[in-house]
Amino acid sequence: MSEIRLRLENVQRRFRTEAGELPVLTGAELTISAGEIVALVAPSGTGKSTLLHLAGLLERPDSGEVHVGGKPTVGLKDEARSALRGQAIGFVYQFHHLLPEFTALENIVLPQMAIGAAEKPAAERGRELLARFGLASREGHRPGRLSGGEQQRVAIARALANRPGLLLADEPTGNLDVATSDKVFSELLEAVRGAGVGALIATHNPDLARRMDRVVTLKDGRVVDA
């Protein structure tokens, strides 16, 4: 049986508004196994970002439990949650969010050093990932000298640098043209599957969603098969 990378159990989340409480998630359940890539396709305003934030330990649910790598997280203190997030979860966003003053290699090295890696092995890991994405010759370039596709490849490499068990992505190629998006997404899928990472990828693109292992959506605050 595959190792479980993410499990949401009866997760509920509501927000206070001027009109009263707004329920967003009302008992969300989701399990993602190692090597499984799940597409999250849902209209804006249905709780997609909230679900990703809860899975990524950026928010706490009002009730329910979020297991990451088999570990329950809701009761953890903030410091322990941050440490687990840095070690076990990789994030890719629509915009690359690379640090502009650092090179491509340094952008991949820094997250590793943040969780205690020594500089030399972190740089070796960074070069390995840059080569994996065809960017070996770009390691000394700052983001401003990279194309959009190259920037997003560096962002994906950064997300995988700490060998996370879980990858969360929000429209990871949504800022790229169609041809570049298709190529970068293919590279993302190959890298994630090859590393045995479980992934939850939010996308509005049905063609990209069909290339994943299964597709889920949000309906009335719950996760359902699309």
From TrEMBL:
<dbReference type="GO" id="GO:0005524">
    <property type="term" value="F:ATP binding"/>
</dbReference>
<feature type="domain" description="ABC transporter">
    <location>
        <begin position="6"/>
        <end position="226"/>
    </location>
</feature>
<dbReference type="InterPro" id="IPR015854">
    <property type="entry name" value="ABC_transpr_LolD-like"/>
</dbReference>
<dbReference type="InterPro" id="IPR027417">
    <property type="entry name" value="P-loop_NTPase"/>
</dbReference>
<dbReference type="InterPro" id="IPR017911">
    <property type="entry name" value="MacB-like_ATP-bd"/>
</dbReference>
<dbReference type="InterPro" id="IPR017871">
    <property type="entry name" value="ABC_transporter-like_CS"/>
</dbReference>
<dbReference type="InterPro" id="IPR003439">
    <property type="entry name" value="ABC_transporter-like_ATP-bd"/>
</dbReference>
<comment type="similarity">
    <text>Belongs to the ABC transporter superfamily.</text>
</comment>
<keyword id="KW-0547">Nucleotide-binding</keyword>
<dbReference type="InterPro" id="IPR003593">
    <property type="entry name" value="AAA+_ATPase"/>
</dbReference>
<keyword id="KW-0067">ATP-binding</keyword>
<dbReference type="GO" id="GO:0022857">
    <property type="term" value="F:transmembrane transporter activity"/>
</dbReference>
<dbReference type="GO" id="GO:0089705">
    <property type="term" value="P:protein localization to outer membrane"/>
</dbReference>
<keyword id="KW-0813">Transport</keyword>
<dbReference type="GO" id="GO:0016887">
    <property type="term" value="F:ATP hydrolysis activity"/>
</dbReference>
<protein>
    <submittedName>
        <fullName>ABC transporter</fullName>
    </submittedName>
</protein>
<dbReference type="GO" id="GO:0005886">
    <property type="term" value="C:plasma membrane"/>
</dbReference>
<dbReference type="GO" id="GO:0044874">
    <property type="term" value="P:lipoprotein localization to outer membrane"/>
</dbReference>
<dbReference type="Pfam" id="PF00005">
    <property type="entry name" value="ABC_tran"/>
</dbReference>
